Structure formats: structure tokens, C-alpha cells
Amino acid sequence: MVANHGLLKGMNPVTTLVSMAIITLFVLGGVFFTEQSAALFTAVSGWILAYLKWYYIGIVAIFLFFCIWLAFSRYGNLRLGDDDSRPEYSNFSWFAMLFSAGMGIGLVFWSIAEPIYHFQSNPFITEGLTAEAAQVAMRLTFFHWGLHPWAIYVIVGLSLSYFSYRKKLPLTIRSALYPLIGDKMYGPVGHAVDVLAVFGTVFGVATSLGLGVTQMNTGLNTMFGMEVSLSNQMILIAVISVIATLSVVSGVGKGVKILSEVNMWLTIGILVFLLCFGPTRYLLGSVLQSTGDYLGNVLSLSTWTDANEGSQWQSWWTAFYWGWWMAWAPFVGMFIARISKGRTIREFIVGVLLVPTMLGFIWLTLFGGTAIYLELFHQITNEAGELVAAVGQAGIVDAVKADVTSALYVTLDKLDAGFIGTIAAFMATLLIATYFITSSDSGTLVVTTILSMGDENPPVTHRVLWGLGEGAVAAILLMVGGLKALQTASITAALPFSFVMIIMVWGLMRSLRQENLAPAVYTSAKAVAS
Length: 530
Hints:
Layout: H1 13-32, H2 34-71, H3 91-102, H4 105-120, H5 131-145, H6 147-166, H7 178-181, H8 188-224, H9 230-250, H10 252-277, H11 280-302, H12 313-316, H13 318-338, H14 345-376, E1 379-381, E2 387-389, H15 396-402, H16 407-414, H17 419-451, H18 460-479, H19 482-513, H20 523-529
Antiparallel strand pairs: 1-2
Helix pairs in contact: 1-2, 1-8, 1-18, 2-6, 2-13, 2-14, 2-19, 3-10, 3-13, 3-14, 4-5, 4-8, 4-14, 4-15, 5-11, 5-14, 6-13, 6-14, 6-19, 8-9, 8-13, 8-17, 8-18, 8-19, 9-10, 9-17, 9-18, 10-14, 10-17, 11-14, 13-17, 13-19, 16-17, 17-18, 18-19
């Protein structure tokens, strides 16, 4: 299944060459046919949103309900590995890598911008910039960053780790097909599934890299005066991609693990800063209130399709997010699988669903809640020298309207923390860079693992090649349309892989039902893989 010599040594020749061809055509098309490429992405994503938005909403809801049921089913005690295996990483390292790979740049980018957007207007309020609007804004932000994205990751990660570590099949997406088609998974159908996974991974990671580098450019402009320009963003992508490639060459146990833990400590540091210098009492109350409000509305939000109104809001928010998460699913799912060997199915689902979700809620409240508080309770001095309410005039709303990447730095500046605020802004920019690196190196490791038929230490040459390639795709997406192109790419890449995820659920359930009936059924597959 893998080449024994030549440039493709250690890699599956078919999936590697096909994947390379697709990505190369995209890069060349973006360079030489920039306007046409942008128009194509827009047309495809527009069709998906017009006709299949309901599908995205429904399938993600089903994934979440399936995960909750499976966690409390009789299969929950099964280990992802042999019955006597135990986890390879400590809980702290595991959670750090989960959070860094699963959210990372996107959470930094949207943690203030999204609540402020919804605070101004959303389909559930009649008037923006009010206390009600603030509550609904946090509810919707929690919805987009809560249980649903992590349920998507659980589906892929659990399927991969189960078939690889318990059933001894290759650590590739195609292994989920074995209960359905047997050894035919090593043929054309399996090749197609792995290529789709690579396609989704590259575009999903590139979307995050594009978001991250635009915000990093803004941060460097704020602190050091670096011009915000496409050329500087290209330079940043090149530099960070090289660093990420060096990290991925070192492997999961070294570079990726260390950077993930650095991310976690930086995250804790910034959260402590906001808690100390922000509206502490408001934030503590908001964490509890917003979490309860989210849990009380999560069922109705999960199945809401905006059928009666038909506005574009849900298309460019919920549908974009669900597409983004599904495009990321092969990347994050594979990475989670690699670091979760030895855990039980119940431990895996509960850990992946709840811990990063709760940390994300705290993050969103401290960042987004601080920004909303500053806007909601802003006061100015009138001509009579009296303090009067000036809701929406703190400057953060205007910053989001003018340049979404500046929202983070404007909020930190409005806290008026002096030198410590400057340090916090620097830490935030550094955090974006480290998340950039961990997203890129984790994505590279996943792509090369898939293409090498599950080799957990794929050839270094290909790790370098794909690491630089992901940076090139991010650069092209910025060239052909910036943020809008990044969004349309994610929505488009998610559609084919969503069908693969449905097959993964089917295959996983079929195999679990056979768990105590035919434990030797995978002998032939193990022989083929070896």
C-alpha cells in the first residue's frame, strides 16, 4: 500500500499524487486566475447555502445527540486500545493539545468580534445594544463554539482511535469503512475517502491560518507600526509556516506537545489579566448566567433553520461555522485520535465534549463579555459636566465595523491597564502565533499520516512539503478574497466530508455491535495492513 523507494517512499502513491495534484491546481488557479477562482468559490458556497443549509444544521445536531447517547451506552467502558492499555499523556497535556488543535486561532479571532456583531443585531432581538441583546449575543456565540463543534470532532476522533488502536487497522480515515466493505477499503473507495480528508484538512487549516495572520498583522501594527498589507501577511505566513514545519518534524511528543502547553499557559495568563483588570463581578456572573442560558436554549438552536425569515444571518454564521468545523474534522479528529490511545469511549467523549467547551465558554465570556460590558455601560461627560450613558460608544463596535481584526486590541486598550495592558497585547499576539504554529504543524502531521497509511512517524520530506503547502494555500485564499474567500472555502470543503462522517458513524456502530460477537473478524484486515 506504500511505496518502498523513490520520492514517495513511505507514502501511498495514489492518494499522495492525487492530493498533490488537487492542491497544486488550486494554488496555480489562485495565482493565475484570481478573479475567476474567487467567483467559483462564491458560486459554489452560495449554492450550498441556498439549498443545503438545512442539511448542515440537521447533520451536526444528529452528531451531537449520537455522541451523548454513545457516552452513556453500554459501549462506554470499551478502551481505545487493548483492554489493559492506559493513556499516553497526562490529562493536562491532553486537554492542552485538544484545545490548541480544536479551536486555537479562530477563538482568538472571533472571541470579541462575534459577540459584538450579535450585540448590534441578530434574528432574535428587535433592538440592538441593549441588555437583552447582550444576553442573546453570548448565547449565540456559545452555540457556535460549544458542544456542536466538539461533537463533530468526537465522531472522527473516536472512529479513528477505535479502529486503529482497538481493531489494529491503519490510522487513516478509510479504516472506518472496514465494517461496511471489508478489504475493499484498500481500493479506489478508500483512496477517495482519504483524498477528501486531505482536501478538507488543508482548506480547513488554511482558513484558520488566514484568519490568524490578518489579526497578527493588526497586532504588530498596533505595537510596532508594521503596515497592515497583503504583502506583510504573506511574509508572516511564510515565516510562521517555516517554524511550524520545524515543529512538526520534531513530532507530537516534542514540538507539538510543548507548543500546546505554551498555548495553555499563555491562555491562562491572558484570562487572569482580563479577570483582574476587567469588570470582574460582571464577568463571573456572566459565565454562570450565559452557560445556563445556553443550556436552556441549545435544543431549539440546534434545530433552528431560519425557514420562516430566510435571512442571510444564519448562512454566514451558523452554516459557516458548521462547515468550518466539518472541514477541520479530519485534521482535529486524527490529531485527537493520536493523543487518546488507552482512554475509554466514555472518557473520550466526556473529555472532548465538556472540558474544551467549558474552557471556551470562560474564554468567550472574559473576552466577549468584557467588550460588551465596555459598550453597554460606557459613559461620557455631557456639557453640564454630568456622566450620562453612551451605550455603543466605547469604540469597540466601531472597531469591529471598520476592521474585525482590531477588536481584540481595541478592547485591551480600553481597559486602560497601562504597561500591563501592553504586555497583555503582546501576549495575545504571541498566542496567535503559537496557535498558528500548532494548527499548522498538527494539520501537516495529520495529512502526512493519512497519506502514509497511518504511519505515526511519516517521512520527514513529506512533512516539510505539506507544511509549506498549507501556508501556500492560506496565502492564496487571502489573495483571492480575504475573509470571504476563507469562509466560502470552508463551507465548500465541508460538504463532501460530511458524507464520509455519516459513513463513519454507521461503520462505528456496526463494529461496536460486533464487539462481543466476533472479536477475530478483523484478522484479515490486520494482515493486509501489515
